[in-house]
Amino acid sequence: MLLKILKDHRPEAMAVVFDAKGPSFRSGIFREYKANRPPLSDDLSRQIPYIKEIVEAFRIPILEKEGYEADDLIGTVAKRARGEGIDVVIVSGDKDLLQLVDERVTQLDTMRDELYGPKEVEAKLGVKPSSIPDMMGLCGDPIDNIPGVPGIGKKTAQELIRRYGSLEALLERAEEDPGIRKRLKEAIRQNRQQALLSKQLATIDTQVPLEFRWEDFRLAPPDEERLKAIFRELEFHRFLKELFPERTLSEEGYHLVTEKEDLEALVRRLRKAEGFALDLESTSRDPMMAQLVGFAISLSPHEAYYIPVGHDYLGAPPQLPADEVLTRLK
Question: What is the pTM of this model?
């Protein structure tokens, strides 16, 4: 999934978030929280250190904090980004994270290739993103062992939260509502505290004491040698070929121009040359859609220069501004 994100979506900045070892604060609130989940298998446990090592080799920061779940760290980062006008894409198939979605925060499910904004969340779950914990307070969540109110399912919970707007408003006014059946009122009355507890368990904490700088999230070229060593150890031959294809042609006589001094030297040679070949590299053959990515220049057989100006991919080299290169080549 990581390679797909880097290749297909080309993020400017990124972090990978893990659950820290040990229980979270929610287990202190409700001992049975996630108690129905089986322990992590030995196979998966052995993979996690390698996953972290691969992430580090890509020079992507890792976030985890004892006492909190990964969801809480994601929520904290997303909230801070939202407040500073930064757009965030949460990459996960976890429905619990959908409560964080708003105008600046979206969630990408790469397994289903679906992107969720506020409208998509409401269409999927029947309530607004911010109301998801209220709904969970009523219907609970068997996956995380959140109890909810016995007898209230997802559909009823959706209807009640849509009508009242919040769990607290429902608990305050349910007795007065003639539209709520007597048995349902009784269930709500008897399980009031359990409903509030369930909402608390389902609510992502966006106030985690987490120190980070946005510049730390900016992607940098990966540590190629470290990645190669890891992939060879794990026998990830396909990834090795995909990320580090073998060079089959000699590089002698072929030059990459990424510095001003090299560009000036090339311009001086072009001015003295009787002739040369020039090829523009672009993103499309359609001139109305194409974007310039580089200049290929040859002054003689088996000698060529390439000036990249618009490459945008993992590990792309530093590049001169396109306007500056065009000006010098005129």
Answer: 0.75
Question: Are both 29 and 157 inside the same structural domain?
Answer: yes
On the CB side of 306, CA atoms within 13 Å amount to 15
Domain boundary among 173, 199, 217: 217
Rounded-to-integer distance, Cα 244 and Cα 56, Å: 18
Rounded CA-CA distance 320/304 in Å is 18
**Total number of domains constituting the chain:** 2
Residue 163 CA to residue 157 CA, distance in Å, equals: 10
Task: Tell me the two tokens of residue 131.
Answer: 């109301």
C-alpha 52 chain-centroid distance: 16
Which domain range does residue 32 map to? 2-217
- The answer to whether residue 240 is domain-embedded is no
User: 262 and 190 in one domain?
Assistant: no
Buried b vs exposed e over 104-137: b needs ≥16 C-beta within 10 Å?
ebbbbbbeeeeebebebbbeebbbbbebbbbbbb
Facing residues of 62 across strands?
16
What pLDDT is recorded for position 250? 58
Considering the domain architecture, whether residues 126 and 194 belong to the same structural domain is answered as yes
pLDDT along the chain (330 residues), means of 10: 84 93 93 89 89 94 96 97 94 96 95 94 96 97 95 96 96 91 94 97 97 90 92 90 71 86 93 91 82 92 91 79 90
Rg of the chain, C-alpha, whole Å: 27
pLDDT for 41 equals 86
**Does some domain include residue 308?**
yes
